[in-house]
Specification:
The complex is a heterodimer. Chain A is 0% helix and 59% strand. By secondary structure, chain A is mostly beta strands. By secondary structure, chain B is mainly beta. Chain B is built from no helices and eleven strands. In chain B, strands 2, 4, 5, 6, 9, 10 and 11 form a seven-stranded mixed β-sheet that branches. In chain B, 37% of the residues are buried. Classes of the chains: A mainly beta, B mainly beta.
Amino acid sequence: KQEVTQIPAALSVPEGENLVLNCSFTDSAIYNLQWFRQDPGKGLTSLLLIQSSQREQTSGRLNASLDKSSGRSTLYIAASQPGDSATYLCAVRPGGSYIPTFGRGTSLIVHP
Amino acid sequence: EAQVTQNPRYLITVTGKKLTVTCSQNMNHEYMSWYRQDPGLGLRQIYYSMNVEVTDKGDVPEGYKVSRKEKRNFPLILESPSPNQTSLYFCASSIGYNEQFFGPGTRLTVL
């Protein structure tokens, strides 16, 4: 059964820092991996989707990479801002299945 | 605006009183699903639907029912709610296996 781990569970950084969030998974037979942002008490906002054939995706200050062979994805946030404070979740969708597995998230605080 | 909507957003009920949480999307997505989110357990899929009249169980289907009579709607039904179904519920939709879009969530408390 697929297991998805996100490290660290919590992170507090000063504004302006570049940071990396990690997502690891145990079964490399994935179809895609999606990164989300969740604000307290709110829904999930899709950030980036990486297909299994891709190595990375970029959107603005965000860059997500995927290394299937090592079972890892990283989300890079450049020049962090207080508005980036949220919980970041990754979800792995296995090949041939509609049931994704979510990590438990990294809670990020960016302080001014 | 492309979106997934859920109603109600907040609900407090009592054990055994049937309830329905509605979900609707306006993106013509064939795939829809329901999740629950619990502290320490993360997001877990309850049911999903690949298209009209096609539904299947996710990881935690016990105590829930769904139906998909129209492409845009995917209601979640709790016929006899129990306190262990107190949770934050999310509906999501996508085109096939691709990018999922989530609704704003429904916070359910069962007393």
